[in-house]
């Protein structure tokens, strides 16, 4: 630092009036470098203090829960933690070894201990995820073995219930003997493990998740397109009208935005149902007969209509804010140079709206992918989305690992799309307002 | 001196809060008319009698927050109202405090609580508070001549035209379909336990698939009936009763083919006011409060001695008795929901149901 060529050093030396050979100091005699470092450290600390609340908030409400959810989707120690002896046997013997008397003994002892500790239900629930119908096998066995089981254990257990001999059950117990498993992800893509541990497709009448994932992404795409088709002209109108008129129109856009989601969803039900306003008007006009009323809700159409309406402001607002900044003289210049109005729009105006369009499309798409209550209310059987299955596993079957696996896949899907978007359009090229 | 004073007052303050906390019960209920019956028939009289403050909060399904609270080790609820199936599951997973049946009060004539409760209403962690059921309801104005009388009519769209609404889920619908297909109530679960039985139920559902609007929230079926969207519903009896009784809608209930289930109290493991919670459960499951609760909502008391005590519908002079699922005449063709079956097969059959819906 104390370089003779440094002009600041020279002036500092002069000001402090010290001999040029000594280290630079401040007025109160401290070395300048240290004082500078300290003051910049203090500034940094103050800046950190300012963002600390936000950082903590994000950590506590976002990073931590998502991390926990991801952990839950691969970790379920319901079996391994409560059946230690049998888990140890599985560790020591690989898949080719048939369960011997030691294994059956470990099973009986673990069941007895789990029954006493009242954790037998946890064990049964864990296995029931992989082999439906086994939870009660565990709980009833727990009640019966409370007083102890006499050897030979295999015969004794099979006498309790011959289902204990099912190789599928043993395979599932082997899978569950490790607290970490990928089985929930397998189930979330309609796959399962057979008794040899190899991955197979789930029975045909039970395959649902892949279909729903595809439908979720497809419907979200359709809804993004419809919000664009409807929102683009509105945003353009808002951006080009004189302020007084456009403010009035803006309120019309915002008013539904401020209305409760449930109210808007219910309003669509009133409008679109078979005895609803739209059908009534069509019948009254004579367009359709009274017994041919259209089914416009409780199916995919209903989901698309209601969600498009609800998500429309998320498309209009970013588009509007970008369109406001577009200088109209560009289009005028293009027109004066001989472009048709279509060419001027396509080559000059539209490309300038892309940052707003990108932001709007991304917002609408991501919101649509996670939508739950609207499809639940107006979706009927064909308008269900994957979020409805996540909700089912959260609140009904209480299989939170499965819900977490489905949610993680959904999150992964959205992140991939985000990455694709970044590669195609560029995330810097995004304008929210 | 001053320090001593501060210290003493701090200790007194701590002691006072500790004392106040003993005399408190945090009740987690469902809200709506059902939650209101808990407030009016249980919470308020208990506050008046025992001098214990009861704080009632609501959840969509109290079983979900309880699981979260216990797993996170931050239990704030003392008593929660949950469905029987959830109670079985939570109890098996060790998330509930055991409830000693000996704390329950005997009936007025001295019959012990064990004999007075209907079968299955008291388990290791659960005490039943009410019985509700899924019933067939129809819009009387839609069927001028012949009226639906049982499950088979629900599936007969030729004789009884019009759309139906059913719960979006496997539970209740599969049993109902089998009953409509001629399986006697007593054999429904034996049939459903076989793969052929499940196929048979789905095949029966197939026959009306295009005529069904699926409901998800309990408030939807009466709304769909009132709007004229559907002419028949398979729905919770309390909701239909409220619309018919409270709002004068022309809805009729067919009790044949009802599937009944129970709701009741549980105590989450590590509840902060365990003793007060037990006191509250003992009081609220005694016959009189149970009968009183049934006057607010048409869910039947699970105690036999409470049935006779049920008076008129709150605010009217119409007797509530015949509107309860537990009324003797209503129980003739009734099916008790088999919880063990559903805890075992809930996920599997719901996946199949949803796949069936989507196909």
UniProtKB/TrEMBL annotation, chain A:
Membrane topology: Multi-pass membrane protein
Record GO biological process: transmembrane transport
Domain of life: Bacteria
Major localization listed first in the record, in broad terms: membrane
Residue intervals of the ABC transmembrane type-1 domain: 213-421
Keyword Transport: yes
Protein's name in the database: ABC transporter permease subunit
Organism: Paracoccus aestuariivivens
UniProtKB/TrEMBL annotation, chain B:
Cited InterPro entries: SBP (IPR006059)
Any matching Pfam family: SBP_bac_8
Domain of life, per lineage: Bacteria
Keywords linked to the UniProt accession: Signal
Signal sequence range: 1-20
Protein name: Extracellular solute-binding protein
Organism: Paracoccus aestuariivivens
Organismal lineage: Bacteria, Pseudomonadati, Pseudomonadota, Alphaproteobacteria, Rhodobacterales
